[in-house]
Amino acid sequence: MKIGVLAIQGDFAEHIVMLKRIGVETAEVRLPSHLDGLDGLIVPGGESTTIGKLSMDFGLLEPLRAFGKTHAIWGTCAGAIFLSKDARRNQPLLGIMDITVERNAFGRQVDSFEADLSIPELGEGGPYHAIFIRAPIIESVQGDTVVMSTLPDGRIIAARQRKLLATSFHPELTHDSRFHQYFLSLAK
Ligand code: GLN
């Protein structure tokens, strides 16, 4: 199993540390050829406009879209925005996942917060401690996308469409590897 992490902006290093910790081979992806031989790809948190623009400059948009037709891709925070069909603004998106997102839905950096979530797909181990940093919400899901978790007020913060996964929060900033393990099960 070899998982790539899009490494052009954002906290890709933290995802790589987590993947190595659970014994997975990793690769930093900056060019289309770096996708060869990967079983899945993670798009990290960061700044979705920057990730989009640099992906365009590096000729990555079409190769990433093609990769997502047959492989698992997981977007965390800015990565989730990048996967979405609609971010309600004009910015480069992969547009491969049937979700509509609202950027910075909780306010500014100082409004970042942590919450214990119930995520049944993660199985045993109790509530999942999630870190939200200038996070988006998933405003709505379409097609065969399923909601994986919501905040107590019903706002959607994790969703899956077949092998595509989107989370508003940052599992790579915790010591809980359950979400990364879950992604490996999608990539298999
Ligand atoms: N606010 C960022 C954006 O809209 C996402 C923040 C993050 O990835 N932690 O792209």
Could you give a quick summary of the protein structure above?
The protein is of the alpha/beta class and 188 residues long. It is built from 5 helices and 12 strands.
Describe the overall structure.
The protein has helices at 12-21, 48-57, 61-70, 78-83, 178-187, and strands at residues 2-6, 25-29, 40-43, 72-76, 84-86, 97-102, 113-117, 128-132, 137-141, 146-150, 156-161, 164-167. The chain has 188 residues and is an alpha/beta fold. It has one domain: Class I glutamine amidotransferase (GATase) domain (Rossmann fold). The longest helix is centred in the first third of the chain and has 10 residues, at 12-21. It starts with a strand and ends with a helix. The model has no long low-confidence stretch (mean pLDDT 96). The structure holds glutamine. Glutamine binds next to helix 4.
Strand content: 25-35%
How would you classify the helix and strand content by structural class? Answer: alpha/beta
The CATH C-level name is: Alpha Beta
Instruction: Specify the overall morphology.
Output: globular
CATH fold-level label: Rossmann fold
Topology order in helix (H) and strand (E) letters:
EHEEHHEHEEEEEEEEH
Total strand segments: 12
**Biggest sheet record:** 7 strands, mixed
CATH level-4 homologous superfamily: Class I glutamine amidotransferase (GATase) domain
Bound molecules: glutamine
Keywords for this entry:
about 190 residues, alpha/beta, globular, 7-stranded mixed beta sheet, 3-stranded mixed beta sheet, binds glutamine, Rossmann fold
List the helices and strands and how they pair.
Layout: E1 2-6, H1 12-21, E2 25-29, E3 40-43, H2 48-57, H3 61-70, E4 72-76, H4 78-83, E5 84-86, E6 97-102, E7 113-117, E8 128-132, E9 137-141, E10 146-150, E11 156-161, E12 164-167, H5 178-187
Parallel strand pairs: 1-2, 1-3, 3-4, 4-12, 5-6
Antiparallel strand pairs: 6-9, 7-8, 10-11, 11-12
The chain binds glutamine.
